[in-house]
């Protein structure tokens, strides 16, 4: 019996050599290029991004994965970037999305639902629980400030600047008081976990001064949009007031005041007409013309541009005044204007004594 078959050996050798050549050819995996998503982006790509973030334990706000890249999604992306050691800008660029959709994406370990730390977490992640206090600087401070601001707390007129100063310390104390935590003014582990939890008490439930409640109530209505039918404007504020449809900027201010008893405390009186609101401040000696008065946090801004308009001042800088206002393109919006805007006629003074903070992040 012939045990060796040269022809069969030849065929098997060819198969082996060919297979080796095929297997040894380098395989190039093309990296996917993601579309940069940022505040204002909308659509399925944004929704996919939000769904992935939520699946990893990051909160995109009460609207969830709605396909709208708003303020809450900016913070959500910022938080993901911080936990994953990426550049923190709140923009979902190629690097951020590559990490997000990879098998190495780190879950959020400070959102209140995942408070246990495993030994496998990197030191950069566990550092999120390190105590932050006055004098500290950096992205961890900025992340905490952003969260406080998005919950409606006032961190000073420089906003989320990454500098843990006196204003941030007082802001943390207010948050701790409202959330039944020891008022240390430091962001220790219990405060950190509460701050990033789903049940952190926001401005709708916080107990603070009447004027701060007044402004924060307005901020919580940011992005509310009325309905327009046959050029008639309908809103929940008009429905509350009893004039619906109708122009509702003054009714928005009146509703905000009514929600936290600011009417009773004489911060503002109820009216559906801008001219009447303005006259009330004039009659009470609390009106300041723009040429001679520097506005403050909580003041009422009056404008005249074909028709009258009214807004609530949230922040003031040397060059700009920042407001939250109703019936701006039929929605509640955050607006930045030049402090020398020719349409500004003046301000109703509420004497807060501080300049508030810019709200460019909205």
UniProtKB/TrEMBL annotation:
Top-rank taxon, per record: Eukaryota
Record carries keyword 4Fe-4S: no
Domain Peptidoglycan binding-like: 43-100, 138-195
Keywords: Membrane, Transmembrane, Transmembrane helix
Transmembrane parts of this sequence: 7-29
InterPro entries: CHAP_dom, Papain-like_cys_pep_sf, Peptidoglycan-bd-like, PGBD-like_sf, PGBDSf
Domain Peptidase C51, residue spans: 245-327
Name recorded for this polypeptide: Uncharacterized protein
Organism: Anaeromyces robustus
């Amino acid at each position: 019996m012939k045990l060796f078959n040269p022809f069969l050996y030849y065929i098997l050798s060819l198969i082996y050599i060919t297979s080796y050549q095929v297997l040894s050819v380098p395989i190039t995996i093309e990296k996917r290029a993601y579309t940069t998503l940022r505040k204002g982006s909308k659509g399925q790509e944004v929704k996919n991004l939000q769904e992935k973030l939520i699946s990893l334990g990051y909160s995109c706000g009460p609207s969830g994965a709605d396909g709208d890249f708003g303020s809450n999604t900016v913070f959500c992306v910022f938080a993901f970037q911080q936990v994953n050691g990426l550049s923190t800008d709140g923009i979902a660029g190629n690097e951020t999305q590559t990490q997000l959709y990879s098998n190495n994406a780190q879950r959020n370990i400070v959102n209140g639902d995942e408070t246990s730390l495993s030994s496998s977490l990197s030191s950069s992640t566990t550092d999120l629980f390190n105590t932050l206090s006055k004098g500290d600087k950096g992205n961890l401070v900025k992340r905490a400030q952003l969260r406080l601001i998005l919950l409606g707390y006032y961190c000073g007129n420089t906003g989320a600047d990454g500098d843990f100063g006196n204003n941030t310390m007082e802001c943390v104390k207010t948050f701790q008081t409202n959330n039944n935590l020891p008022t240390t003014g430091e962001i220790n582990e219990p405060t950190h976990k509460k701050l990033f939890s789903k049940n952190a008490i926001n401005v709708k439930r916080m107990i603070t001064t009447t004027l701060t409640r007044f402004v924060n109530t307005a901020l919580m209505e940011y992005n509310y949009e009325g309905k327009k039918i046959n050029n008639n404007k309908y809103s929940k504020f008009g429905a509350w007031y009893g004039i619906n449809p109708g122009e509702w900027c003054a009714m928005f201010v009146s509703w905000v005041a009514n929600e936290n008893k600011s009417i009773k405390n004489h911060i503002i009186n109820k009216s559906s007409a801008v001219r009447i609101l303005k006259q009330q401040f004039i009659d009470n000696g609390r009106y300041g013309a723009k040429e001679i008065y520097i506005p403050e946090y909580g003041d009422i801004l009056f404008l005249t541009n074909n028709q009258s308009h009214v807004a609530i001042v949230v922040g003031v800088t040397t060059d700009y005044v920042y407001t939250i206002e109703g019936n701006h393109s039929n929605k509640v919006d955050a607006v930045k204007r030049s402090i020398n805007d020719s349409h500004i006629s003046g301000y109703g003074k509420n004497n807060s004594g501080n300049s508030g903070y810019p709200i460019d992040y909205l």
